[in-house]
User: Fold this.
Amino acid sequence: MLTLTENAQKAISRFIKGADAPVEGLRISVEGGGCSGMQYGMALEDSARNDDTVVEISGIKLFIDPHSAPLLEGLTVDFQDSMEGSGFKFTNPNASNSCGCGKSFNA
Assistant:
């Protein structure tokens, strides 16, 4: 379903370990907005919701809601750290159009 690169796994693990409250996993979602119509959301969560799909990759639990699941099928999440800035980069085979920032898309 989803792929997390090694850099993304390290970054997510670092964020989970540094959280102020207990964290069970990371929610990845698709929401309306962004310059291309839909944008990715990421949030540390203390538990999964009843209707979530839970995917575990290298000990990291990802929570995906039913609305977002088909739009995230095949998604690759990377974390890049460069002089221009750092952040997560999403490569989505379901996106028919993506914006330059790589954080929003149109399916």
In short: The CA atoms of residues 36 and 105 lie 5 Å apart. The mean pLDDT is 87. The helical segments are 6-17, 69-72.
